[in-house]
Please model this.
Amino acid sequence: MAVNLSFVSNEDTQKLYSHLYQGCNILRGPIYPEEYKTYIFPLLFYKRLCDEYTREINSALKESDGDMQYALFPENHRFIVLEGNHWNDVRNKIENIGFALQTAFRSIERANPKSLITIFNDFDDAKWSNKERLTDERLKNLLEHFSTLNLDDAHCPDDVLGQAYEYLIKKSRI
Model:
């Protein structure tokens, strides 16, 4: 169940930072502190895209009296998340989760060529499918951890994600 923090208040933003730090703790061991942002931030961005896509679907469903075909029209979305590549699809995987994440990232880039074409490239140093560093169990724990947040636009303004990125950079220096 998603936590519906607004992240507009300082208290909620501090809760986000605490949540990010807990995510870093899940990576602790096989991933070095200077690499945390390489893994955490793309997950946050991916989660945000999927949460916003879900919010837009629900809004379009409400607007159209439940017409799913209408809700899926690209015109109803800022970004497209193709079937099988939503956060919940990857979250439901039990093996090869790192590969599923990489696949979803690339699918989102291809589905949004004008706005997101290389958005995940800055994080190509992440070795998502290296099971010696990131087991499926560890990735599953990380996905479950971030699944408790709702990062759509209504709950998490853009500037808060920017602040979260700065927070991760600071934590990477520890």
